[in-house]
């Protein structure tokens, strides 16, 4: 019995020292490292269940103003997706200012053109997604101003991390 146990221990030690036949290899090139940025501009839309979902538009990162304009002017949303953020034919860059941890976006629409509270969330989430994708802080909030009607209070996106 003792010889059997000793033989098993000795065999295990020999295998461990032998490295189980694995031989060293040279340096392997694994290609470029991932950057962590998804391609395209994040734009938030609303699905049939009433949830905010992000869709990528274009092939490069846009500014907050460009992304917001993209949301307001997009006509092809995709099956089962809609926007409550209002519509605009704006062609110029939207005014965007940052003071402390608040981004203020001047929208070329009236407040009552935003058809539901989730439309406000679409605009806020789109702006914050671009801000965070550009390396901005997740604690930043967004205030929306309108041609007519009260501005929103600074707010976070309900579906993005807040840091």
Automatic annotation (TrEMBL):
Keywords: Signal. Residues 1-18 form the signal peptide. It comes from the Bacteria. This is Sporulation and spore germination. The lineage of its organism: Bacteria, Bacillati, Actinomycetota, Actinomycetes, Pseudonocardiales.
